[in-house]
């Protein structure tokens, strides 16, 4: 049978190769006995070299550890040094510098925005506090507190705090804004 590689646009299917033909090919027959012996010898030498190098490496690693121990370099100190070196490398990288600059700029802009917002809110509260309706509300609260203090002090324990608070709120609600300022003894205002 004929074997042909089919392209992407080739309309004919690929023909299969007979299994008998594939099994007839022996890859080991391509080497002569001398070549095979030479390759095995070289492989053995390489394995011995690898073993020797492993022993040398183990000896050098042991000597390395002993020298570090004499210098007082513990694994923890070494880890710390590696971390510090990595941290320094990261901080000096271009990406870190760009990110740091971007975050710094964003932080400054955010801070400026909050400052502006705080100023605006303070200004609004100042405007609101100076408004006539807030002044009226403030006066009513002051009168209510004054009335409560007066009634609690004058009753001499004759009523509970809830009763005094209720009567002060009732008295405060009945008054009109035109007569919320009147004179009383001991500089107390009644509302």
UniProtKB/TrEMBL annotation:
Coiled coil: 29-63
Compositional bias annotation for Polar residues: 173-183
Region ranges (Disordered): 152-191
Keyword Lyase: no
UniProt KW keywords: Coiled coil
PANTHER family cross-referenced by the UniProt entry: TUMOR PROTEIN D52, TUMOR PROTEIN D53
Family label: Belongs to the TPD52 family.
Gene Ontology CC: cytoplasm
One GO BP: positive regulation of apoptotic signaling pathway
Annotated protein name in UniProt: Tumor protein D53 homolog
Pfam families: TPD52 (PF04201)
């Amino acid at each position: 049978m004929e074997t042909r590689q089919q392209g992407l646009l080739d309309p004919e299917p690929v023909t299969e190769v007979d299994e008998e033909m594939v099994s007839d090919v022996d890859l080991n027959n391509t080497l002569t006995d001398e070549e095979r012996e030479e390759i095995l010898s070289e492989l053995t030498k390489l394995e011995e070299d690898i073993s020797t190098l492993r022993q040398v490496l183990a000896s050098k690693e042991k000597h390395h550890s002993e020298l570090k121990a004499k210098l007082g370099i513990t694994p923890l100190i070494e880890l710390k040094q590696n971390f510090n070196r990595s941290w320094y490398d990261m901080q000096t990288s271009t990406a870190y510098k760009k990110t740091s600059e971007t975050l710094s700029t964003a932080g400054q802009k955010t801070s400026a925005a909050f400052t502006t917002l705080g100023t605006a809110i303070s200004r609004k509260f100042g405007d609101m506090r100076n408004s006539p309706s807030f002044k009226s509300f403030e006066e009513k609260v002051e009168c209510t507190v004054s009335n409560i203090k007066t009634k609690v002090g004058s009753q001499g324990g004759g009523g509970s705090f809830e009763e005094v608070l209720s009567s002060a709120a009732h008295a405060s609600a009945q008054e009109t804004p035109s007569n919320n300022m009147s004179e009383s003894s001991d500089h107390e205002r009644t509302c």
